[in-house]
């Protein structure tokens, strides 16, 4: 997917399979990833679409924080909104801190793996009785990921 400038230049913005359709509007996962990786505490970020009862799909942001980082999801959301970087309606409501973003054999983010892990309920918050989807978790999920997840609705 892309845009054509008034001068006739084509700018590629995202892969068709990675664009998130939320409430009839399109959200670029690449735009969100680039904005998140501009934060000084974020080493890597991958954004995928996850099902949402109200909007059809919503973005799930998975981030790898730099060593010693104290950033939290409230800080990252505020950073995305600073100076109009990302519109409020595009902001992720579901977040997960992970140790590393899964990659394909050529080093690209493997978003299929992230979507599958989300669907399986792999991301959990320590001390929480629900997974990142908000559904009751089983004890097996509690040890699958060492990093916390966060599902906030605003």
From TrEMBL:
BP term (GO), one: fatty acid metabolic process
Family label: Belongs to the ATP-dependent AMP-binding enzyme family.
Domain of life (superkingdom): Bacteria
Parts forming coiled coils: none
The entry's keywords: Fatty acid metabolism, Ligase, Lipid metabolism
Source organism: Streptomyces haneummycinicus
Keyword check for Nucleus: no
Pfam family, one: AMP-binding_C
GO molecular function annotation: ligase activity
InterPro entries found in the cross-reference section: AMP-bd_C, AMP-bd_C_sf
Region: Disordered, residue numbers: 118-137
Keyword Transmembrane helix: no
Annotated AMP-binding enzyme C-terminal domain residues: 31-108
Official protein name in the record: AMP-binding enzyme C-terminal domain-containing protein
């Amino acid at each position: 997917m892309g845009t054509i400038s008034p001068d006739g230049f084509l700018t590629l913005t995202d892969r068709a399979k990675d664009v998130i359709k939320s409430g009839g509007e399109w959200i670029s996962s690449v735009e969100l990833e680039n904005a998140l990786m501009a934060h000084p505490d974020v080493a890597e970020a991958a954004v995928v679409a996850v099902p949402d009862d109200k909007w059809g799909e919503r973005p799930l942001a998975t981030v790898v924080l730099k060593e010693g980082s104290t950033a939290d999801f409230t800080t990252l959301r505020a950073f995305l909104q600073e100076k109009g970087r990302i519109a409020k309606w595009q902001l992720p409501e579901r977040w997960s801190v992970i140790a590393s973003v899964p990659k394909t054999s050529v080093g690209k983010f493997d978003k299929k793996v992230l979507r599958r892990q989300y669907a399986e309920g792999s991301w959990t918050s320590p001390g929480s009785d629900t997974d990142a989807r908000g559904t009751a978790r089983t004890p097996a999920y509690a040890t699958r990921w060492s990093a916390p997840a966060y599902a906030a609705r605003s």
